[in-house]
Amino acid sequence: MVLTPSTRKLIYELCELGWLFKKVNDWNSRSSKLEHQSKVVKALSFAIDSELKEYYRLIALLDSQRTQYPN
Question: What was the pLDDT predicted at 71?
Fold first, then answer.
C-alpha cells in the first residue's frame, strides 16, 4: 500500500498513542487490585481512572459526531 508521508506519520503516532494507552490502562488495572497500597498510589490510580473515563467520553462524542455527519 502506498501512503503519503503525512499519512504514514499519523498512523505511527496513533499506534504509539494506543500502545501508551494500553500500558497506562494495564498498570492502573493491576494497581487497583492490590490490597495494600499507599495513599499516593491510590490517589494516582484514581486520577488516572478519571482521565481515562474522560478520554472514553471524548472518543464516544467524536464517534457520534462522525456517524451523524459522514463525509
Answer: 63
Contact 20, 14 (CB under 8 A): no
Q: Give me the number of domains the chain comprises.
A: 1
> Which structural domain range is residue 52 located in?
5-68
C-alpha 24/C-alpha 47 separation (Å) is: 12
Does the pLDDT value for residue 66 go beyond 90?
A: no
Distance CA(64)–CA(68), nearest Å, equals 6
Q: What does the block give as the cell for 2? A: 502506498
Q: Write out the H or E segment, with its range, that includes residue 6.
A: helix 5-32
Looking at residue 43, its amino acid is A
Cell numbers that stand for 44 in this block: 494516582
Tell me the average pLDDT of the chain.
89
Give the global pTM: 0.68
